[in-house]
Amino acid sequence: MTALLLPLAYLVGALPLGHWLARRRGVDLRTASPYTLGLESALRRLGLGLLLSFLLDFLKGYLPLLLGRALGLDLAGLLALGVAAYLGHLYPLFLRDPWPLRAKGAGVLLGILSGLPLPPALGLVPVALGLALYALTGYASLAALGLPLGLLGVTLFGGFGLGEKLSALALFLLALWRYKENLGRILDGTEPRLGEPLPLPSGKQVVCAFLIHPLTLEDLWQSPRFRWLRPLVRLGLLKREWIERLAERFRPMKVGEVRGVRTADGREVLCHLISAPLFPHQIKAKPELAVRRAIQGARLAKELGATVVGLGAFWSVVGEKGKRVQEAVPGIEVTNGGAYTAGTVRAAIPRILAHFAQSGKDLKGVTAAVVGANGVVAFGIARQIAPYVGKLVLVGRDLKRLERAAESLRKNLERKGEVPEILATTEIAAIREADLVFTATSDPAPVIYPEHVKPGAWIYDEGVPPDVHPSVREVPGVRVIPGGVVRLPGEARATLDLHFGAPDQVPACLAETMILAAEEAFDRKSLGGEVKAENIQFFVERAEALGFRVVE
Protein backbone atom coordinates (compact mmCIF):
# COMPACT_ATOMS: atom_id res chain seq x y z
CA MET A 1 0.00 0.00 0.00
CA THR A 2 2.79 2.41 0.94
CA ALA A 3 4.53 1.84 -2.39
CA LEU A 4 1.34 2.77 -4.27
CA LEU A 5 0.85 5.96 -2.27
CA LEU A 6 4.43 7.24 -2.56
CA PRO A 7 4.08 8.51 -6.19
CA LEU A 8 0.78 10.18 -5.26
CA ALA A 9 2.42 11.92 -2.29
CA TYR A 10 5.26 13.10 -4.54
CA LEU A 11 2.82 14.50 -7.12
CA VAL A 12 0.86 16.37 -4.44
CA GLY A 13 4.07 17.82 -3.05
CA ALA A 14 5.23 18.79 -6.54
CA LEU A 15 2.21 20.99 -7.20
CA PRO A 16 3.69 24.54 -7.40
CA LEU A 17 0.70 26.09 -5.64
CA GLY A 18 2.61 29.00 -4.13
CA HIS A 19 4.08 29.82 -7.54
CA TRP A 20 0.68 29.73 -9.23
CA LEU A 21 -0.79 31.97 -6.56
CA ALA A 22 2.04 34.47 -6.95
CA ARG A 23 1.75 34.52 -10.73
CA ARG A 24 -1.96 35.30 -10.46
CA ARG A 25 -0.88 38.36 -8.47
CA GLY A 26 1.78 39.29 -11.02
CA VAL A 27 4.75 38.21 -8.89
CA ASP A 28 7.39 35.68 -9.92
CA LEU A 29 8.84 34.58 -6.61
CA ARG A 30 11.43 32.38 -8.32
CA THR A 31 13.46 35.44 -9.24
CA ALA A 32 12.16 38.04 -6.80
CA SER A 33 14.15 37.22 -3.68
CA PRO A 34 16.66 34.85 -2.12
CA TYR A 35 13.80 33.01 -0.44
CA THR A 36 12.06 31.79 -3.59
CA LEU A 37 8.59 30.48 -2.80
CA GLY A 38 9.49 30.63 0.90
CA LEU A 39 7.70 32.10 3.89
CA GLU A 40 9.63 35.36 3.99
CA SER A 41 9.34 36.21 0.30
CA ALA A 42 5.63 35.42 0.37
CA LEU A 43 5.27 37.71 3.38
CA ARG A 44 7.00 40.61 1.63
CA ARG A 45 5.54 40.15 -1.84
CA LEU A 46 2.07 38.66 -1.28
CA GLY A 47 0.89 40.43 1.88
CA LEU A 48 -2.36 38.78 3.00
CA GLY A 49 -1.90 36.21 0.28
CA LEU A 50 0.75 34.73 2.58
CA LEU A 51 -1.95 33.00 4.63
CA LEU A 52 -3.34 31.24 1.59
CA SER A 53 0.14 30.44 0.25
CA PHE A 54 1.26 28.96 3.55
CA LEU A 55 -2.01 27.02 3.91
CA LEU A 56 -1.57 25.51 0.44
CA ASP A 57 1.94 24.36 1.31
CA PHE A 58 0.68 23.02 4.63
CA LEU A 59 -1.97 20.96 2.84
CA LYS A 60 0.64 19.54 0.45
CA GLY A 61 2.33 17.96 3.45
CA TYR A 62 -0.78 17.14 5.45
CA LEU A 63 -3.20 15.59 2.90
CA PRO A 64 -1.00 12.66 1.77
CA LEU A 65 -0.51 11.66 5.41
CA LEU A 66 -4.23 12.08 6.12
CA LEU A 67 -4.97 9.69 3.27
CA GLY A 68 -2.34 7.26 4.55
CA ARG A 69 -3.85 7.28 8.03
CA ALA A 70 -7.30 6.61 6.56
CA LEU A 71 -5.85 3.59 4.77
CA GLY A 72 -4.25 2.29 7.95
CA LEU A 73 -0.55 2.98 7.32
CA ASP A 74 1.77 2.74 10.32
CA LEU A 75 4.07 5.57 11.43
CA ALA A 76 6.96 4.35 9.25
CA GLY A 77 4.74 4.38 6.17
CA LEU A 78 3.38 7.82 6.99
CA LEU A 79 6.87 9.22 7.41
CA ALA A 80 7.81 7.73 4.05
CA LEU A 81 4.85 9.58 2.50
CA GLY A 82 6.08 12.76 4.17
CA VAL A 83 9.51 12.33 2.65
CA ALA A 84 7.94 11.80 -0.80
CA ALA A 85 5.75 14.91 -0.47
CA TYR A 86 8.69 17.05 0.66
CA LEU A 87 10.87 15.68 -2.13
CA GLY A 88 8.17 16.63 -4.63
CA HIS A 89 8.03 20.15 -3.21
CA LEU A 90 11.80 20.58 -3.49
CA TYR A 91 12.17 19.01 -6.93
CA PRO A 92 8.88 19.38 -8.83
CA LEU A 93 8.35 18.04 -12.31
CA PHE A 94 5.81 20.70 -13.24
CA LEU A 95 8.29 23.57 -13.56
CA ARG A 96 11.26 22.90 -15.78
CA ASP A 97 13.49 25.92 -15.29
CA PRO A 98 17.12 26.46 -16.28
CA TRP A 99 17.94 26.23 -12.56
CA PRO A 100 16.15 24.54 -9.67
CA LEU A 101 13.42 26.32 -7.79
CA ARG A 102 14.90 26.97 -4.38
CA ALA A 103 11.65 26.37 -2.48
CA LYS A 104 12.38 25.59 1.17
CA GLY A 105 9.02 24.17 2.30
CA ALA A 106 8.52 25.24 5.93
CA GLY A 107 4.75 24.96 5.42
CA VAL A 108 5.11 21.47 3.95
CA LEU A 109 7.24 20.36 6.90
CA LEU A 110 4.66 21.67 9.35
CA GLY A 111 1.91 19.87 7.44
CA ILE A 112 3.85 16.60 7.63
CA LEU A 113 4.33 16.99 11.38
CA SER A 114 0.62 17.71 11.83
CA GLY A 115 -0.30 14.57 9.91
CA LEU A 116 1.78 12.24 12.09
CA PRO A 117 -0.08 10.34 14.85
CA LEU A 118 2.40 11.30 17.56
CA PRO A 119 1.51 11.76 21.24
CA PRO A 120 0.95 15.50 21.92
CA ALA A 121 4.02 15.73 24.16
CA LEU A 122 6.27 14.36 21.42
CA GLY A 123 4.49 16.11 18.55
CA LEU A 124 5.14 19.52 20.10
CA VAL A 125 8.89 18.95 20.40
CA PRO A 126 9.75 19.90 16.78
CA VAL A 127 7.55 23.01 16.90
CA ALA A 128 9.00 24.06 20.25
CA LEU A 129 12.54 23.59 18.92
CA GLY A 130 11.77 25.67 15.82
CA LEU A 131 10.29 28.49 17.91
CA ALA A 132 13.23 28.39 20.29
CA LEU A 133 15.74 28.67 17.45
CA TYR A 134 13.86 31.61 16.00
CA ALA A 135 13.64 33.37 19.37
CA LEU A 136 17.36 32.89 19.99
CA THR A 137 18.65 33.80 16.52
CA GLY A 138 15.97 35.66 14.57
CA TYR A 139 16.64 33.48 11.53
CA ALA A 140 13.53 31.92 9.98
CA SER A 141 15.69 29.40 8.14
CA LEU A 142 17.00 27.98 11.43
CA ALA A 143 13.46 27.87 12.80
CA ALA A 144 12.33 25.84 9.78
CA LEU A 145 15.27 23.46 10.15
CA GLY A 146 14.26 22.96 13.76
CA LEU A 147 11.11 21.14 12.62
CA PRO A 148 12.77 18.09 10.95
CA LEU A 149 15.61 18.22 13.49
CA GLY A 150 13.12 17.97 16.35
CA LEU A 151 11.32 15.12 14.58
CA LEU A 152 14.63 13.30 14.13
CA GLY A 153 15.32 13.69 17.84
CA VAL A 154 11.88 12.34 18.72
CA THR A 155 12.38 9.20 16.61
CA LEU A 156 15.92 8.62 17.86
CA PHE A 157 15.13 8.95 21.55
CA GLY A 158 11.42 8.10 21.64
CA GLY A 159 11.69 4.36 21.26
CA PHE A 160 10.69 4.21 17.58
CA GLY A 161 11.81 1.61 15.04
CA LEU A 162 14.51 1.73 12.37
CA GLY A 163 12.07 2.65 9.58
CA GLU A 164 10.82 5.71 11.45
CA LYS A 165 14.38 6.80 12.24
CA LEU A 166 15.57 6.46 8.64
CA SER A 167 12.59 8.41 7.26
CA ALA A 168 13.06 11.18 9.83
CA LEU A 169 16.77 11.30 8.98
CA ALA A 170 15.98 11.54 5.25
CA LEU A 171 13.54 14.39 5.91
CA PHE A 172 16.14 16.28 7.95
CA LEU A 173 18.92 15.74 5.38
CA LEU A 174 16.68 17.00 2.56
CA ALA A 175 15.88 20.14 4.55
CA LEU A 176 19.53 20.62 5.52
CA TRP A 177 20.59 20.35 1.87
CA ARG A 178 17.95 22.83 0.73
CA TYR A 179 18.84 25.32 3.48
CA LYS A 180 22.61 24.98 3.01
CA GLU A 181 22.92 28.34 1.25
CA ASN A 182 20.99 30.06 4.04
CA LEU A 183 23.29 28.44 6.59
CA GLY A 184 26.32 29.60 4.63
CA ARG A 185 24.98 33.16 4.56
CA ILE A 186 24.37 33.00 8.30
CA LEU A 187 28.01 32.03 8.81
CA ASP A 188 29.11 34.80 6.46
CA GLY A 189 26.87 37.36 8.20
CA THR A 190 24.83 38.21 5.11
CA GLU A 191 21.52 36.44 5.85
CA PRO A 192 18.72 38.90 6.73
CA ARG A 193 16.76 38.13 9.86
CA LEU A 194 12.97 38.04 9.69
CA GLY A 195 11.81 41.63 9.96
CA GLU A 196 14.85 43.11 8.23
CA PRO A 197 14.41 44.50 4.70
CA LEU A 198 15.30 42.12 1.93
CA PRO A 199 18.25 43.22 -0.24
CA LEU A 200 16.14 43.90 -3.32
CA PRO A 201 16.07 46.87 -5.73
CA SER A 202 13.95 49.83 -4.66
CA GLY A 203 13.74 53.54 -5.23
CA LYS A 204 16.53 54.13 -2.70
CA GLN A 205 18.58 50.98 -3.14
CA VAL A 206 20.36 49.66 -6.21
CA VAL A 207 21.29 45.96 -6.15
CA CYS A 208 23.99 44.34 -8.26
CA ALA A 209 26.26 41.30 -7.97
CA PHE A 210 29.87 40.52 -8.71
CA LEU A 211 31.35 37.11 -9.46
CA ILE A 212 34.68 36.44 -7.74
CA HIS A 213 36.94 33.45 -7.13
CA PRO A 214 39.76 32.63 -4.70
CA LEU A 215 43.26 33.44 -5.85
CA THR A 216 44.87 31.29 -3.15
CA LEU A 217 43.80 28.78 -0.50
CA GLU A 218 43.90 31.59 2.05
CA ASP A 219 41.16 33.35 0.08
CA LEU A 220 39.03 30.22 0.39
CA TRP A 221 39.29 30.41 4.18
CA GLN A 222 37.82 33.92 4.20
CA SER A 223 34.38 32.34 4.13
CA PRO A 224 33.47 30.72 7.48
CA ARG A 225 31.69 27.95 5.60
CA PHE A 226 35.10 26.71 4.37
CA ARG A 227 37.34 27.89 7.23
CA TRP A 228 36.99 24.67 9.22
CA LEU A 229 38.95 22.90 6.49
CA ARG A 230 42.10 25.01 7.05
CA PRO A 231 43.43 23.05 10.08
CA LEU A 232 42.97 19.80 8.13
CA VAL A 233 45.08 21.19 5.27
CA ARG A 234 47.77 22.49 7.62
CA LEU A 235 47.95 19.12 9.36
CA GLY A 236 48.35 17.40 6.01
CA LEU A 237 45.06 15.51 6.33
CA LEU A 238 43.73 17.23 3.22
CA LYS A 239 45.83 17.83 0.13
CA ARG A 240 45.49 20.90 -2.04
CA GLU A 241 44.52 18.80 -5.06
CA TRP A 242 41.67 17.28 -3.04
CA ILE A 243 40.42 20.76 -2.19
CA GLU A 244 40.60 21.73 -5.86
CA ARG A 245 38.64 18.67 -6.94
CA LEU A 246 36.06 19.42 -4.26
CA ALA A 247 35.85 23.06 -5.41
CA GLU A 248 34.91 21.90 -8.90
CA ARG A 249 31.76 20.34 -7.42
CA PHE A 250 30.46 23.51 -5.79
CA ARG A 251 27.85 25.68 -7.45
CA PRO A 252 28.24 29.46 -7.04
CA MET A 253 27.26 30.81 -3.63
CA LYS A 254 26.93 34.19 -2.00
CA VAL A 255 29.96 34.71 0.25
CA GLY A 256 29.86 38.41 1.07
CA GLU A 257 28.67 41.91 0.24
CA VAL A 258 29.95 45.37 -0.52
CA ARG A 259 27.92 47.61 1.76
CA GLY A 260 27.60 51.30 2.55
CA VAL A 261 28.12 52.57 -1.01
CA ARG A 262 26.22 55.84 -1.33
CA THR A 263 26.43 57.80 -4.56
CA ALA A 264 26.73 61.57 -4.73
CA ASP A 265 23.01 61.80 -5.57
CA GLY A 266 22.04 59.87 -2.42
CA ARG A 267 21.36 56.35 -3.69
CA GLU A 268 22.61 53.27 -1.86
CA VAL A 269 24.30 50.52 -3.86
CA LEU A 270 24.42 46.99 -2.46
CA CYS A 271 26.61 44.45 -4.22
CA HIS A 272 26.35 40.72 -3.56
CA LEU A 273 29.70 38.94 -3.81
CA ILE A 274 29.16 35.54 -5.42
CA SER A 275 31.91 32.94 -5.59
CA ALA A 276 32.27 29.72 -7.49
CA PRO A 277 35.42 28.55 -5.70
CA LEU A 278 37.56 27.70 -8.71
CA PHE A 279 41.18 28.81 -8.66
CA PRO A 280 42.63 30.75 -11.62
CA HIS A 281 44.44 27.77 -13.15
CA GLN A 282 41.24 25.72 -12.98
CA ILE A 283 39.28 28.41 -14.80
CA LYS A 284 41.88 28.47 -17.56
CA ALA A 285 42.31 24.69 -17.76
CA LYS A 286 38.58 23.83 -17.78
CA PRO A 287 36.85 26.53 -19.83
CA GLU A 288 33.53 24.70 -20.23
CA LEU A 289 33.25 24.12 -16.49
CA ALA A 290 34.09 27.79 -15.96
CA VAL A 291 31.35 28.87 -18.37
CA ARG A 292 28.80 26.66 -16.58
CA ARG A 293 29.74 28.11 -13.21
CA ALA A 294 29.62 31.68 -14.55
CA ILE A 295 26.14 31.04 -15.94
CA GLN A 296 25.02 29.56 -12.63
CA GLY A 297 26.50 32.57 -10.84
CA ALA A 298 24.53 34.94 -13.08
CA ARG A 299 21.34 33.00 -12.36
CA LEU A 300 21.97 33.19 -8.62
CA ALA A 301 22.59 36.93 -8.96
CA LYS A 302 19.24 37.28 -10.69
CA GLU A 303 17.56 35.25 -7.97
CA LEU A 304 19.11 37.50 -5.33
CA GLY A 305 17.45 40.50 -6.94
CA ALA A 306 20.45 41.97 -8.79
CA THR A 307 19.87 43.84 -12.04
CA VAL A 308 23.51 43.58 -13.18
CA VAL A 309 26.20 40.98 -12.55
CA GLY A 310 29.87 41.74 -13.13
CA LEU A 311 32.48 39.13 -14.02
CA GLY A 312 35.55 39.70 -11.90
CA ALA A 313 39.18 38.61 -12.31
CA PHE A 314 39.36 35.43 -14.44
CA TRP A 315 35.59 35.22 -14.81
CA SER A 316 35.85 38.24 -17.10
CA VAL A 317 37.44 36.17 -19.87
CA VAL A 318 35.24 33.05 -19.80
CA GLY A 319 32.53 32.42 -22.36
CA GLU A 320 33.92 34.84 -24.97
CA LYS A 321 34.41 37.46 -22.26
CA GLY A 322 30.86 37.16 -20.98
CA LYS A 323 28.92 36.86 -24.23
CA ARG A 324 27.89 33.23 -23.65
CA VAL A 325 26.88 34.03 -20.09
CA GLN A 326 24.62 36.85 -21.26
CA GLU A 327 23.04 34.63 -23.92
CA ALA A 328 22.30 31.94 -21.34
CA VAL A 329 20.84 34.37 -18.76
CA PRO A 330 18.99 37.10 -20.67
CA GLY A 331 17.05 38.18 -17.59
CA ILE A 332 20.04 39.97 -16.03
CA GLU A 333 22.65 42.30 -17.51
CA VAL A 334 26.19 40.88 -17.66
CA THR A 335 29.38 42.95 -17.90
CA ASN A 336 33.07 42.06 -17.89
CA GLY A 337 34.00 45.56 -16.72
CA GLY A 338 36.36 46.28 -19.60
CA ALA A 339 35.17 49.80 -20.40
CA TYR A 340 35.73 51.44 -17.02
CA THR A 341 38.91 49.42 -16.54
CA ALA A 342 40.19 50.92 -19.78
CA GLY A 343 38.99 54.31 -18.58
CA THR A 344 40.97 54.12 -15.35
CA VAL A 345 44.06 53.08 -17.30
CA ARG A 346 43.55 55.89 -19.80
CA ALA A 347 43.31 58.36 -16.93
CA ALA A 348 46.30 56.94 -15.07
CA ILE A 349 48.85 56.73 -17.91
CA PRO A 350 49.31 60.50 -18.52
CA ARG A 351 49.78 61.05 -14.78
CA ILE A 352 52.33 58.25 -14.55
CA LEU A 353 54.26 59.63 -17.53
CA ALA A 354 54.14 63.12 -16.06
CA HIS A 355 55.40 61.97 -12.65
CA PHE A 356 58.11 59.91 -14.30
CA ALA A 357 59.24 62.89 -16.37
CA GLN A 358 59.48 64.96 -13.18
CA SER A 359 62.22 62.62 -12.00
CA GLY A 360 64.45 64.33 -14.57
CA LYS A 361 64.32 61.80 -17.40
CA ASP A 362 63.56 62.70 -21.01
CA LEU A 363 60.73 60.41 -22.11
CA LYS A 364 62.09 60.34 -25.67
CA GLY A 365 65.17 58.62 -24.29
CA VAL A 366 63.17 56.12 -22.25
CA THR A 367 62.43 52.47 -23.07
CA ALA A 368 58.94 51.31 -22.12
CA ALA A 369 57.61 47.76 -22.12
CA VAL A 370 54.06 46.44 -22.26
CA VAL A 371 53.51 42.89 -21.02
CA GLY A 372 50.40 41.06 -22.20
CA ALA A 373 50.27 43.14 -25.38
CA ASN A 374 48.11 40.57 -27.17
CA GLY A 375 45.28 41.65 -24.86
CA VAL A 376 42.86 44.53 -25.44
CA VAL A 377 43.75 46.50 -22.30
CA ALA A 378 47.52 46.07 -22.63
CA PHE A 379 47.61 46.98 -26.31
CA GLY A 380 45.46 50.01 -25.52
CA ILE A 381 48.21 51.07 -23.11
CA ALA A 382 50.79 50.51 -25.86
CA ARG A 383 48.91 52.80 -28.25
CA GLN A 384 48.66 55.45 -25.56
CA ILE A 385 52.33 55.57 -24.53
CA ALA A 386 53.99 54.88 -27.90
CA PRO A 387 54.13 58.55 -29.07
CA TYR A 388 55.97 59.64 -25.91
CA VAL A 389 58.82 57.11 -25.53
CA GLY A 390 61.98 56.35 -27.50
CA LYS A 391 61.56 52.57 -27.60
CA LEU A 392 58.59 50.31 -27.01
CA VAL A 393 58.88 46.59 -26.18
CA LEU A 394 55.68 44.57 -26.72
CA VAL A 395 55.60 41.22 -24.91
CA GLY A 396 52.91 38.67 -25.70
CA ARG A 397 52.31 34.97 -26.29
CA ASP A 398 51.22 35.02 -29.96
CA LEU A 399 54.22 36.45 -31.82
CA LYS A 400 52.62 36.58 -35.28
CA ARG A 401 49.55 38.39 -34.06
CA LEU A 402 51.71 40.67 -31.94
CA GLU A 403 53.94 41.56 -34.92
CA ARG A 404 50.87 42.41 -37.00
CA ALA A 405 49.60 44.66 -34.21
CA ALA A 406 53.03 46.27 -33.88
CA GLU A 407 53.17 46.97 -37.62
CA SER A 408 49.70 48.53 -37.52
CA LEU A 409 50.78 50.72 -34.59
CA ARG A 410 53.98 51.69 -36.39
CA LYS A 411 52.11 52.79 -39.53
CA ASN A 412 49.63 54.80 -37.48
CA LEU A 413 52.47 56.61 -35.72
CA GLU A 414 54.28 57.28 -39.01
CA ARG A 415 51.31 59.28 -40.22
CA LYS A 416 51.68 61.45 -37.14
CA GLY A 417 55.47 61.70 -37.41
CA GLU A 418 56.06 60.06 -34.01
CA VAL A 419 57.71 56.67 -34.51
CA PRO A 420 59.60 55.02 -31.63
CA GLU A 421 61.56 51.83 -32.08
CA ILE A 422 59.09 48.97 -31.59
CA LEU A 423 60.11 45.43 -30.67
CA ALA A 424 57.63 42.53 -30.52
CA THR A 425 58.71 39.47 -28.55
CA THR A 426 57.49 36.54 -26.49
CA GLU A 427 60.46 36.75 -24.10
CA ILE A 428 59.66 38.34 -20.75
CA ALA A 429 63.40 38.88 -20.21
CA ALA A 430 63.24 41.64 -22.84
CA ILE A 431 61.72 44.03 -20.30
CA ARG A 432 65.04 44.10 -18.42
CA GLU A 433 66.04 47.19 -20.44
CA ALA A 434 62.77 49.04 -19.74
CA ASP A 435 62.57 52.10 -17.50
CA LEU A 436 58.76 51.93 -17.56
CA VAL A 437 56.82 48.65 -17.52
CA PHE A 438 53.08 48.32 -18.01
CA THR A 439 51.57 44.88 -17.49
CA ALA A 440 48.03 43.55 -17.94
CA THR A 441 47.91 39.79 -18.46
CA SER A 442 45.36 37.10 -17.65
CA ASP A 443 48.00 34.79 -16.22
CA PRO A 444 47.02 33.12 -12.92
CA ALA A 445 50.58 33.42 -11.55
CA PRO A 446 53.09 36.29 -11.45
CA VAL A 447 55.05 36.75 -14.68
CA ILE A 448 57.51 39.43 -13.60
CA TYR A 449 60.27 38.53 -11.14
CA PRO A 450 63.35 40.44 -9.87
CA GLU A 451 65.60 39.04 -12.61
CA HIS A 452 63.34 40.64 -15.23
CA VAL A 453 63.41 44.14 -13.78
CA LYS A 454 65.85 47.01 -14.19
CA PRO A 455 66.76 48.77 -10.91
CA GLY A 456 64.84 52.03 -10.64
CA ALA A 457 62.09 50.95 -13.04
CA TRP A 458 58.47 51.99 -12.56
CA ILE A 459 55.93 49.19 -13.03
CA TYR A 460 52.21 49.76 -13.54
CA ASP A 461 50.49 46.45 -12.72
CA GLU A 462 46.97 46.10 -14.13
CA GLY A 463 46.92 42.30 -13.74
CA VAL A 464 44.37 40.53 -11.52
CA PRO A 465 45.85 38.58 -9.84
CA PRO A 466 48.97 40.78 -9.88
CA ASP A 467 51.50 40.13 -12.62
CA VAL A 468 54.38 41.34 -10.44
CA HIS A 469 55.80 39.00 -7.82
CA PRO A 470 56.08 40.65 -4.36
CA SER A 471 59.85 40.10 -4.35
CA VAL A 472 60.20 42.64 -7.19
CA ARG A 473 59.63 45.42 -4.65
CA GLU A 474 62.99 44.53 -3.11
CA VAL A 475 64.87 45.55 -6.30
CA PRO A 476 66.56 48.91 -5.57
CA GLY A 477 64.55 51.90 -6.75
CA VAL A 478 61.69 49.87 -8.23
CA ARG A 479 58.22 51.37 -7.82
CA VAL A 480 55.17 49.10 -8.33
CA ILE A 481 51.92 50.96 -9.01
CA PRO A 482 48.64 48.96 -8.79
CA GLY A 483 46.26 49.74 -11.63
CA GLY A 484 42.51 49.83 -12.05
CA VAL A 485 41.74 50.49 -8.38
CA VAL A 486 38.70 52.62 -7.53
CA ARG A 487 37.63 54.12 -4.19
CA LEU A 488 33.89 53.82 -3.62
CA PRO A 489 31.70 56.72 -2.47
CA GLY A 490 30.09 56.81 0.96
CA GLU A 491 31.16 54.66 3.90
CA ALA A 492 31.73 51.63 1.72
CA ARG A 493 33.30 48.40 2.85
CA ALA A 494 33.57 44.90 1.48
CA THR A 495 32.96 42.08 3.93
CA LEU A 496 35.80 40.14 2.27
CA ASP A 497 39.38 41.16 1.56
CA LEU A 498 39.38 41.78 -2.19
CA HIS A 499 43.14 42.57 -2.15
CA PHE A 500 42.87 46.16 -3.33
CA GLY A 501 44.42 47.88 -0.34
CA ALA A 502 41.41 48.98 1.71
CA PRO A 503 37.82 47.85 2.38
CA ASP A 504 36.46 50.74 0.27
CA GLN A 505 38.77 50.08 -2.70
CA VAL A 506 37.66 47.73 -5.47
CA PRO A 507 38.67 46.84 -9.04
CA ALA A 508 37.34 49.07 -11.79
CA CYS A 509 35.28 46.17 -13.21
CA LEU A 510 33.31 45.99 -9.95
CA ALA A 511 32.84 49.76 -10.00
CA GLU A 512 31.54 49.50 -13.58
CA THR A 513 28.98 46.95 -12.38
CA MET A 514 27.74 49.38 -9.72
CA ILE A 515 27.61 52.31 -12.14
CA LEU A 516 25.64 50.27 -14.67
CA ALA A 517 23.12 49.28 -12.01
CA ALA A 518 22.81 52.83 -10.67
CA GLU A 519 22.46 54.48 -14.08
CA GLU A 520 20.51 51.63 -15.73
CA ALA A 521 22.61 52.34 -18.81
CA PHE A 522 22.60 48.70 -19.83
CA ASP A 523 23.51 49.43 -23.44
CA ARG A 524 26.92 50.55 -22.12
CA LYS A 525 27.84 47.16 -20.62
CA SER A 526 31.12 45.52 -21.63
CA LEU A 527 30.81 42.19 -23.44
CA GLY A 528 33.29 40.43 -25.69
CA GLY A 529 36.69 41.82 -26.58
CA GLU A 530 35.56 45.12 -28.09
CA VAL A 531 35.62 48.22 -25.91
CA LYS A 532 33.95 51.25 -27.46
CA ALA A 533 35.53 54.64 -26.92
CA GLU A 534 32.18 56.26 -26.16
CA ASN A 535 31.52 53.70 -23.41
CA ILE A 536 34.91 54.32 -21.86
CA GLN A 537 34.16 58.04 -21.76
CA PHE A 538 30.68 57.39 -20.35
CA PHE A 539 32.01 55.47 -17.37
CA VAL A 540 34.78 57.98 -16.70
CA GLU A 541 32.24 60.82 -16.63
CA ARG A 542 29.51 59.02 -14.67
CA ALA A 543 32.00 57.64 -12.14
CA GLU A 544 33.18 61.18 -11.45
CA ALA A 545 29.62 62.45 -11.08
CA LEU A 546 28.58 59.61 -8.74
CA GLY A 547 31.63 59.96 -6.49
CA PHE A 548 33.82 57.05 -7.63
CA ARG A 549 37.52 57.99 -7.50
CA VAL A 550 40.47 56.31 -9.24
CA VAL A 551 43.24 55.49 -6.74
CA GLU A 552 46.64 56.67 -7.92
Describe the structure.
The structure is a single chain. By secondary structure, the protein is of the alpha/beta class. It contains 23 helices and 15 strands. The protein has helices at residues 2-14, 17-24, 39-46, 49-70, 75-90, 106-115, 120-137, 140-157, 162-178, 180-188, 217-220, 224-227, 230-234, 240-247, 280-285, 287-303, 318-321, 323-328, 338-358, 376-385, 399-416, 508-519, 533-546, and strands at residues 205-212, 253-262, 268-275, 308-311, 333-335, 367-371, 391-395, 421-425, 436-439, 458-461, 479-482, 485-487, 490-494, 505-507, 549-550. The strands form three sheets. The chain has a six-stranded mixed β-sheet, with helices on both faces. A hairpin with a 5-residue loop joins strand 2 and strand 3. Helix 19 (338-358) runs parallel beside helix 20 and helix 22 crosses helix 23 (533-546). The longest helix has 22 residues, at 49-70. It is elongated. The termini are far apart. The model is unreliable at 30-39 and 96-101 (pLDDT under 50).
How far is the first residue's CA from the last residue's CA?
Answer: 74 Å
Low-confidence stretches: 30-39, 96-101
Radius of gyration over C-alpha positions, nearest whole angstrom: 28 Å
The total beta strand count reads 15
The number of helical runs is: 23
Shape: elongated
Q: Give helix % range.
A: 40-55%
Largest sheet: 6 strands, mixed
Q: Tell me the fraction of residues in β-strands, as a range.
A: 5-15%
Class computed from helices, strands and strand pairing: alpha/beta
Determine the mean pLDDT.
86
Strand order of the largest sheet: 5-4-1-3-2-13
